[in-house]
Amino acid sequence: MTNFFFDVHDGISVRDDIGRQLPDIEAARREAIQIAAKYAKDPENLGAGGLLVVSVRNTGDAVVLTIRLVCQIEVAG
């Protein structure tokens, strides 16, 4: 098991200092997608630019995975 840390950036950065024990990078990818989906459910969590980023770090503090969700709304007229 490896400890992965999930930082969230949506105009404000929230650093994960606790992390989660997961078996591999694929499990970390699934966890990051779930975190991004949970945040994106609430429109207030999307920053002014409509960008939500989840960065996954390993125990060496290196970013091993990044997920970006973009929500752009254009009103016609």
UniProtKB/TrEMBL annotation:
Domain DUF6894 per the UniProt entry, residue ranges: 4-69
Superkingdom of the source species: Bacteria
UniProt-listed InterPro entries: DUF6894
Protein name (record): PDZ domain-containing secreted protein
